[in-house]
Amino acid sequence: MKISMPNCSQRAGRLILPITVLAALVLATAGCDNFRRRGDDGDDDDSDWECDAMATSITIGTADRPAELKGPPGWCANFPMQVIVSLHGYGGTAVAHEFLFRLGDRVEADDFLLVLPNGTADVTGRRFWNGPPACCDFYGSGVDDVGYLTGLIEEIEDIAMIAPYGVYFVGHSNGGFMSYRMACEKPELVSAIASLAGSGYPQASDCASDVPTSVLQIHGEDDSTIPYSGDDWYPGAEELVERWASRAGCNLSAGAAGGSLDLVNNLSGSETDVFTYSDGCINDTEVSLWTINDGPHTPYVNETFGEQLVQWLLSH
User: Fold this and answer.
1) pLDDT of 10
2) C-alpha dihedral over 20, 191, 306, 155, to 10 degrees?
3) How far apart (Å, rounded) are the C-alpha atoms in residues 264 and 55?
4) In this model, does residue 18 exceed pLDDT 50?
5) How far apart are the C-alpha atoms of 94 and 265, rounded to whole Å?
6) Which residues fall within 8 angstroms of residue 187, CB to CB, at 6 or more apart?
7) Which has the closest alpha carbon to 198: 214, 180, 222?
């Protein structure tokens, strides 16, 4: 049996393991305050531990649907890592999506693995994810993207160690919709999701999961493609986060404003308002809404966006 040791940012209290295994994990992470990734040039005593060093870019997936797995220089297959799966929007590609989110720039600084997959092409040649009904299997292909994305995580588990509670999905537009589908259908796999300009199922009951999951919804108020207020096919941003806060058992009356962020280059000041549900939430989950005032469907985000986004995900 392969045991994935928790990384230093995780709480051992969330692990339900046999006493002998738990004791080994406690010993393995006892030096977390002074932790440096193995394989670097630090002063850690590595005499009893050898890093199975991996390339910074690895192709995973199938021949017809490859994906890129990016890691920090010197990352070790035998040390647990957190994994972020980043999903492009309708008509996009993994490469173009990276120009928007630029999460690859954060891989080394925040020490995580990044997965960059592509959706399949529809009859018009546009790549898509088969997310909730509104977006975007418009031609009824029925492609099993839940199975495909789950398979990517399983493949990573075969070649490396994934930290407990260490898998996250994030996406733009159609990629955001797909992230919500993953949270609904694979809650045992997904630790947290983040969506920029995406949404979920028409009705709360359409989501099969009642498992508390941390969710971050980022949405521009002036989005004319996926309106902030929603429509008959998907909920608005505020209703969506209330649903997930309710699913997580949060005290809805205790939702609180949390200041503002400067995430967009061509909007002046700190244009993004933060609202969070965290009071009473089960298992320390958190549900947040970042509203981009005057923000469009595809905002011109700055470097702070990727930093804030990654830090939010990896802390949940």
Assistant:
1) 37
2) 70
3) 33
4) no
5) 22
6) 209, 211, 213
7) 180
Contact in structure between 243 and 204 (CB atoms under 8 Å)? yes
Nearest to 291 by CA among 246, 260, 312: 260
pLDDT in tens, 241-294: 999 999 999 999 999 999 999 999 999 999 999 999 999 999 999 999 999 999
HSE-CB at 109 with a 13 A cutoff on CA atoms is: 11
Q: Categorize the per-residue pLDDT at 45 as very low, low, confident or very high, splitting at 50, 70 and 90.
A: low
Domains defined along the chain, listed by start: 1-36 (no CATH), 50-314 (3.40.50.1820)
pLDDT category of residue 186 using cuts at 50, 70 and 90: very high
Structure tokens at 28: 């393995």
Strand partners, 220: 292
Tokens of 4: 């994935």
Bridge partners of 214, per DSSP, are 192
Read off the tokens for 152. Answer: 């990517």
Note whether 184 and 209 are within 8 A (CB). yes
Q: Which residues contact 13 (CB under 8 A, 6 or more apart)?
A: none
Specify the pLDDT at position 26: 38
Mean pLDDT for 23-45 is: 41
Output b/e per residue, 209-240; b: 16+ Cβ within 10 A.
Answer: eebbbbbbbbbbbebeebbbebeeebbbbbeb
